[in-house]
Structure prediction request, 224 residues.
Amino acid sequence: GEDVEQSLFLSVREGDSSVINCTYTDSSSTYLYWYKQEPGAGLQLLTYIFSNMDMKQDQRLTVLLNKKDKHLSLRIADTQTGDSAIYFCAESTPGNQFYFGTGTSLTVIP
Amino acid sequence: DTGVSQDPRHKITKRGQNVTFRCDPISEHNRLYWYRQTLGQGPEFLTYFQNEAQLEKSRLLSDRFSAERPKGSFSTLEIQRTEQGDSAMYLCASSLGQRGSEQYFGPGTRLTVT
Prediction:
């Protein structure tokens, strides 16, 4: 249950919505997370969702979880140039191990 | 500054040498995690501590790697007989230890083995 996969690149125009997708394999995952990493900076937690929820909204961010398909998505509304970064999804197991995806590099075109 | 700190930020060493990294977590956090991140990849879990107890170790953590957290505060990660494949960014994170609690990441130690 350690495979977390993401597409590598996404480009969107400023003001459009971005959708970043993630699939995972461990059905025992307890929490699923989205992190943001800007160049030269550490990882910053954006949001997380408990595995028995199917949606969570936090300002411009919407997380959707399809537990049956083990699919997680992050939607960023009204994407801004400051949103350009690498986005990682991650899962935590009941044993508190964390597994991260390879990251999706989001480029916002002005 | 009350964030997670790591020292050193950069380390260059020759193959075969031993290196030790330090992580100082946020003071009230009882969980501490070590990860390794290589270029173009996400962080790979190595190990974590609940206070001074090392509770989980990834199979990525070979016998050459050892981590300690003797007093439940700072932690050290030692790599013995370094190999070129050990070159990576080593990240430390800490959390309060409650379910779903946020991990706060340090800036990382970049290791280059020549």
